Amino acid sequence: MTHDKSKPLVLVDGSSYLYRAYHAMKDKDFETSDGRPTGAIYGVVNM
Prior knowledge:
- There is one protein chain.
- With 47 residues, the chain is mainly α.
- It has helices at 14-25, 39-45.
- The protein is elongated, with a radius of gyration of 17 Å.
- It starts with 13 loop residues before the first helix and ends with a helix.
């Protein structure tokens, strides 16, 4: 019996995290100086 020494592949459904984070943070004033919303990124990083 041989052992496979390859590393496991981990898949993450990022769109669901972004959706949840965006809607959780949409009432906050997270945006760039030109008005682009950044709450979703902030929320995902802090999950």
